Amino acid sequence: MRCLFSLLLLAASARAAILTLQSARFIITDAKGEQVRSEPISTTHAAKPIELGKSDTLKLTFQVFDKEEGQGVQPHQTFLRFYDEVSGEEGLQPVRVASNGKAKFELNLAKPPLSLPPTKADTPLKLSLIIGAPSHSPLTVKLPDLLLPASQAPPVHPDEASFHPLPEIHHTFRPDQKLPPRPISAVFTAVVLAPWVVLLGLWSQVSIRVPYIFSPSILPFIATLGAFEGLLFAYWVDLKLGQVLFYGAGLSLATIFTGKNALAAIGSRRTGKGN
C-alpha cells in the first residue's frame, strides 16, 4: 500500500512539473547597433515573420519557468531548431541558460553559426525552441518564422574533384612483338658470323699448327674474342646498352693484353723458325 502511494505521489509530482516560457522577446538591430524592431513572442498567436538583412543582428531573450513552483529553472538541454520545409535541411543551435532560467541568444548574419542551414531569399526558416529537463516534461515552443537573405554558395575545396567518380580506365596493351622474316634473320646471322669466317681464312694463310693455337699465349686471346660474341648475344637477349658498354670496356682491356701476347708469341715463333 505504501509503495502504491509512493508511485501515485511520484506520478502527481511528475505531472505537476511543467515548464513554460516567460518574457520571451526578440530584438533586431542594424550594423550601427540601432534597434529596428522589438516585439514580445507569443506562444499562442502566430506572429509576423522575422526578416533580417545581411548586416542585422537578432537578439532572442526568454526565461524558462516552472509553472507550479513559480521560479526559473535551468533545463538540461535547450536548442533552437532551424528547419527549411522546402529542402528538408535543418540545424540545431544549443542555447546557454543560466541557473535562474534566463537565456539570451544572438544571431549575427555577419558571422552566422555553422548550424544555420542554407537559405533562399523567398523561403523562410521555421524557428522553434526545444527545451528538455529530466524532472520536467519536454517543451517545444514555435517561434516566428525567420526570413534571411540567400546564403552564398560554399567555397569549392581544391581537392573536391578527387571525391567525384573518375572516368573508367581502359588499358591499351601493345601488340605482340613481330619476328622479322627468316631471310632477314639469316642475313644478319651471317653478318654476325662473318668475322669468324674471316679469322678462319686468315688462320689458313698462317703456318700455325692447331695444337699451337691452344698454347697459353694464344688461347686467352681466342677466349676473349668468344667472350665478345657471347656479350653481344646476351645484349640481344637480356642486357641493356649501359651494361654492354660496361662489360665491353673490361673485355677490351683483356683483349688488348691477350692479343699483344699472342702477337708476340707468333712473332717469336716465326723468328725462331727462320733462324
Automatic annotation (TrEMBL):
UniProt KW keywords: Transferase
Protein name: Oligosaccharyl transferase delta subunit
Source lineage: Eukaryota, Fungi, Dikarya, Basidiomycota, Agaricomycotina
